[in-house]
Amino acid sequence: MGRPFDKAQGTPFRFTLRATDGAARLGEFETPHGLVHTPAFMPVGTQGAVKATLHRDLIDSGAEIVLGNTYHLFLRPGDELIARRGGLHRFIGWNRPLLTDSGGFQVFSLAERRTITEEGAEFQSHLDGSRHQLTPERAVDIQARLGSDVAMVLDECLAYPATHEAAAESMQRSVRWASRCRARLERLRAEPPPGVTVSNAGQAQFGIVQGGVFADLRRESADATVAIGFEGYAIGGLSVGEPIDQMYAVVQETAARLPVAAPRYLMGAGTPEDLVECVARGIDMFDCVMPTRNARNGQLFTSQGRINIKNAAQAEDDRPVDPACGCYTCTHHSRAYLRHLYLAGEMTAGALNTLHNLTFYLDTMKRIREAIQLGTFERFRQEFLRLSGDSRTNS
Amino acid sequence: MGRPFDKAQGTPFRFTLRATDGAARLGEFETPHGLVHTPAFMPVGTQGAVKATLHRDLIDSGAEIVLGNTYHLFLRPGDELIARRGGLHRFIGWNRPLLTDSGGFQVFSLAERRTITEEGAEFQSHLDGSRHQLTPERAVDIQARLGSDVAMVLDECLAYPATHEAAAESMQRSVRWASRCRARLERLRAEPPPGVTVSNAGQAQFGIVQGGVFADLRRESADATVAIGFEGYAIGGLSVGEPIDQMYAVVQETAARLPVAAPRYLMGAGTPEDLVECVARGIDMFDCVMPTRNARNGQLFTSQGRINIKNAAQAEDDRPVDPACGCYTCTHHSRAYLRHLYLAGEMTAGALNTLHNLTFYLDTMKRIREAIQLGTFERFRQEFLRLSGDSRTNS
């Protein structure tokens, strides 16, 4: 790691590598709100809630850490209101680990409604058009108020495709921003300035490697980010439309360049197959809206591929979504009933489908961890891909 | 009762009166899917699901019986599909008692899209405009396919206000329909004709007393309905806009005229105060969409009156909705968080609010039963109304 972790600074964040199997890693990290076993999948709780899911269902599904979106929480209900409530954990009633993004990704997605300078980003709220500024320092301050266990630096998220020149400029700016983010966090750790509430003194901070699909830029970004020194490292700017093989290649090369002793987080990915393939390339953490969003649209992941619950094939199918699944949905309800709920527009369709998809994702992570522990990860990977690939088009 | 219950006909339905306190009654009834303690509140599961609620949450809230709407289930997914799945219990994965209405109330609500004759009602589906006929016999057959534990006769639901003449004609037609419904059920019990699947051989059937707000008509209807002979008796045609005192008066007089040895069900009521006031007048069963519908609109019932979760007063309120409530929502989340979820349009707002409101309703029924058992119902009633009335306008 670029700089050794300084315990005196207050974060109990600590990553322990337990086993490896090829490039796949089994580990865990400690946060002020408990332990997270890696490889880990983080359900996305955009506005302080994972859509259609009660916290207890997250716990039942095996979720150990949830992601909150800084952009959304900053706009509504506001980071200062959340700080007055004692931070995001207390506000939402979730006393397990939380990670927050920087808000950058959503701001950059606003397209016409934002401008970017060296100082940071100016943007208009998608809710009421109000104008706001997001600088590296503000991204740190907002996340300090939210009090997540892991905060992310503000980075520039480039659209795909981009030229080498644009990717290089953007990446270098992200490195400068990362440096400003770290400096700001160190200031908050030493003594928060007036107006900044630090809701979680043990908050860790992850840097983000950028550089598009260019190997040289990814190397440069990884080295510069590691030189600044963070508790963990993310790979950003992927899963944005590039070919899947290119994504896997960037993941593999970038992960290999990151410190062994810190967790590696691939942001915004992916399909169940992506999780397996990227664990195989050295990734420890994932987040993605796919299991929750697809659930609400009626697409269910199973050990034998995907099912579209809307399809007529399910109308009189009394089987569970996935006979291999032990979730509440699969142990209590049939495909026929889930299809009926979906077509009838019942909210419980979203709840039951989400519960299943999250369980499928989190079970997959558990099986991945078990396979690494047993040294059978490659066999697991082959079998997983064979089963899911065989029946992608199933029903 | 008009006719003694004939066990040879196969239904294990049996009502036992355990205690009385004034006109209030403590009892229970046995169904093929278990026991229901009365006075009971039945959450409404219109389309085979109580909106925004998983079955396990119903069980946790103390629900012992759920109501399904025949009109909706007949149109989608269809009573024959449900019969092929083994009946409504198996189709929806709820193995506790179920009551179905006859479909009449929804059909009569279609206004321009239905015509009524002595034979029955013709109506157009609100979903696709398709034409259907609902006769007393069909209402029995459809409910036989659904296989609920308690089926309701088809009655004519008159709009309020109505003249004495219109109410009399309509009531007399309802009595003739009730007679046809009972004859049809007896035929199904003896030997179902081809094409009618009886999913639950132990299904009971309740008659419905009509007659608007006219005491003489209610008496005539009660006597005629009891003379036909059913396992239980409902009071229909109330909670349709008449003044509350008039509703209470009709309930009191009608309940007093019904057999002591059968359960009495007030259809479609009501507020928490209505439940207490109508138990005081001899009612044993209730159903109403109010706890679930109001929850989705942000109105929460508490032991100290109603709260509108949208209000600014809740924005920084860290208290639970009701400190006296032990539901998941109240033990895990603050008013501030629930307000945020509601304003952010999160589906979990509906789920958490519904869970609370149903718990409040079902807890109220439990407290009512305890008070009758202890012989303190009148004191309970006074205290309940004082607390809830004091703060109706609270927040």
Key words describing this protein structure:
homodimer; 395 residues; alpha/beta; three-stranded antiparallel sheet; globular; disordered N terminus; disordered C terminus
How is the topology of this model organized?
The structure is a homodimer of 395-residue chains.
Chain A: E1 14-21, E2 24-31, E3 34-38, E4 40-42, E5 44-45, H1 55-61, E6 66-68, H2 70-75, H3 79-84, H4 88-92, E7 98-100, H5 104-108, E8 114-116, E9 121-124, E10 131-134, H6 136-146, E11 150-152, H7 164-190, E12 204-209, H8 215-228, E13 232-235, H9 244-257, E14 264-266, H10 272-279, E15 285-287, H11 290-296, E16 299-302, E17 305-308, H12 328-332, H13 335-343, H14 347-374, H15 377-390
Parallel strand pairs in A: 4-15, 5-6, 6-7, 7-11, 11-12, 12-13, 13-14, 14-15
Antiparallel strand pairs in A: 1-2, 2-3, 8-9, 9-10, 16-17
Helix pairs in contact in A: 1-14, 6-7, 7-8, 8-9, 10-14, 11-14, 13-14, 14-15
